[in-house]
Amino acid sequence: MTISASQNNPVGVGIVLRFGVWLLVFSISANLLLLAMPIYLSQIYDRVLPSDGLDTLLYLTLLILFCIGLFSIFEILRRTVAQKLSVHYELRTKSALLEHGVKNREIDRTRLASLLNDVTTVRQFLSGRGLFSIFDLPFVPIFLAILFFVHPWIGAVASLGALILLFLALGNELMASRHQHNTSRLYQQSTAKSSEILRHLDDVCAMGMGKAQLNRWQRTIVDAVYSSNELSAVNGVFFGLVRFARQAIQIMILGCSAYLVMSEHLSAGLIFASSIISGRALMPIEQFVGSYKQLTAASVANNRLKHWFNGTQDASNMPAPLTLPEIKGYLRSDNVSLVPPGATSDKALLRGISFEVEPGEVIAIVGSSGAGKSTLMRVLASVIRPSMGKVSIDGFELEQWDPEQLGAEIGYAGQESDFFHGTVAENIARFNPDASDEAIVNAALNAGAHEFIGSLPQGYNTNLDTVSFNLSGGQKQRINLARAFFGDPQILLLDEPDAHLDKEGERALVAAIANARARGKTVLFVTQRMHLVNSANKVLIVDNGMVVKFGPREALMAPRDTNRKTEAIEDKSSQKTLENTDH
C-alpha cells in the first residue's frame, strides 16, 4: 500500500518523505543493534568461557547493555514518528475531505462519511506494528547474508525457510483478497443502513417500521460478519502455518549448527548466534502475515481515497475565487434547469427557470407540493448546482464568489431545522467565534425566539444536545430563522419559514420580512399560506419545475374571474397546508 502524494493528496510528498526517511533511519539503526546479542553470545562461548576472562565479560556486558538501551530508544523514536505520521495523515486528509464537501455541496454525503472512515482505517495501520514489519522486511536478505557468511548450510536452510514463509504470505494474499473487498463493502452498507435508521428514527417508530428496518440491517450485518469470519479464518490458518514454519526452521538451524560444531566446521558460540539471527530474519515475514488483514483493509481504504482525490483533480486545479465587493443583493436566475444524476431530461426537477430580483424586493414562491420550490431555493442558496443555466448575484455567478463571503451574506433557512452540537447561541451565531452577544440577541428578536429562549434551562447557553428533543417544531423553526437572520445578511432565502409557527410567530416573521424590505434586503420565501404572501411585493408561481407566473402580487393575486389559472394553483397548494403550532 502506498499513500498517494499527487497534487490532489492533502498529505503531500514532503511530509511522506520527511517521516519516511526518519522511519527508515530508525529502522536501520534498530535492526543493526539487534546483532549485538548474537555477537555477545558468540564471544561469551568462544572467548570468555575458555579463558575465564572476567574483565572481558564485564566490558562485553556493559557494551551489550548500552546497545540494548540504544535499541529501545530507536524503537521508541520510530513508534513516535509513525504516530506523528498517522496524525498528520488523519488531520490533513479528513480536513481536505470535509473542505471539499463544504465547497461542493452536491457531493454524495454517504460516500463522504465512508471516506472519513477509510481515513481512520489507514491511520490505524500507520500507527500499528504492521507498518514496522514493512520497514523490517528489507533487512531479511541482510540477515540471511550474515548466516551465509557464518556457514553456507545455515544460510541455505534459513533462505529455504524464508521462501516458504513468502509463499505462505502470497497464498494468504490470494485467498484473503476477495474476502477483504467483500467484507469492507458489506460493512459499509450496514453502517449506511444503521445511520439511516437513526436519522429517521421518529418515522421508524411512528409508523411501526422498526422490525422491518432491523431485519433489513441484520441481513446485511450478518453477511458482513460471515464474510469477516471467513477472512479471519483464512488469515488465522496462514498465520498458524507461518508460525509453525518459522519455529520449525529455527529448530532445523539449531540442529544444523550442532552438526557443524560436532564436525568441527563451526564454533559452539555460533549455534545460539545463528538461531537468534535466523529468528530475526524470519520475524518480519511472520509479522507481515500476522498484520495482513489490517494491511489489506488499509490498502483497500487508501485506494478508495486515492481514486476519489484523483477524481477531484479538475476542481482542485481551479483558481480560488476572489473576494468581491460587498453584496448588494441583485439576484438573477437565468434558464436554470436541474436533472438528477442518472436521470433523463424529462425527469428534470427544474426546467428553464428565469427571473430577476432587485434589492428591497420580497418574492413569495408558491406552487403545489413537488413543484420544485424547495429545490429552487437550494439552487439559489448554492447548496446544489444546476445542470444547466446559471444563478448570479450582483452579476457574478455563484461559483465566482468566495464561499465564506457569500455564506455570510445569505440567510438560508431550509425546511428541516437541523442543529449542530453546541449551545443555542453558538447555533444562532453559525459558530462564529467573534460573534457579539448583541448580534445573537438581535437575530433571535427578529425571529421571535428571544422570549422562549429565555425559558430554557440556561437560556442562550443551553446545550441543544440535551433539549432539542423537547423543543416543539415551532421553537426549532424560530432558532433556525434566527440563524438565518444572524449577521444581517443582504439576501434571505426562507423555505416555508411559517410551516410550524403559531400566530405570534407568524406576526414576528412578517415584521422581520417587512423590516428587511425597508432596509433594502433581498428576500425570497416559499410558503403555502396566503397570509405570508401578502408581505411580498412579487409572487413567483412554480409548477412542475417551471415558472408559471412571475410579477407583482397585486396583479397575480387578482379576483378569481380574472386569473383562474393562478388561483387554481394556489388552491391546490392550500389543500396541502397543515396548520402546525407551537406547543
From TrEMBL:
List localization entries. Answer: Cell membrane
Q: Where is this region: Disordered?
A: 558-583
Q: What are the ABC transporter domain coordinates in residue numbering?
A: 331-569
Q: Which GO terms describe its cellular component?
A: plasma membrane; type I protein secretion system complex
Q: What protein is this chain from? A: ATP-binding cassette, subfamily C
Q: Which UniProt keywords apply?
A: ATP-binding, Membrane, Nucleotide-binding, Transmembrane, Transmembrane helix
Family annotation (SUPFAM superfamilies): ABC transporter transmembrane region (SSF90123), P-loop containing nucleoside triphosphate hydrolases (SSF52540)
Q: Where is the ABC transmembrane type-1 domain?
A: 21-297
- Gene3D superfamilies linked to this entry: ABC transporter type 1, transmembrane domain (1.20.1560.10), P-loop containing nucleotide triphosphate hydrolases (3.40.50.300)
**What are its GO biological-process terms?**
protein secretion by the type I secretion system
Q: What is its main location?
A: membrane
Q: Cite the GO molecular-function annotations of the record.
A: ABC-type oligopeptide transporter activity; ATP binding; ATP hydrolysis activity
Q: Which family does it belong to?
A: Belongs to the ABC transporter superfamily.
Q: Which InterPro entries match?
A: AAA+_ATPase, ABC1_TM_dom, ABC1_TM_sf, ABC_transporter-like_ATP-bd, ABC_transporter-like_CS, ATPase_T1SS_PrtD-like, P-loop_NTPase, Type_1_exporter
As for membrane topology, the entry says: Multi-pass membrane protein
Where exactly are the transmembrane stretches of this chain? 21-45, 57-77, 131-150, 156-175, 251-277
User: Which domain of life does the UniProt lineage start with?
Assistant: Bacteria
Composition bias of kind Basic and acidic residues appears in: 561-583
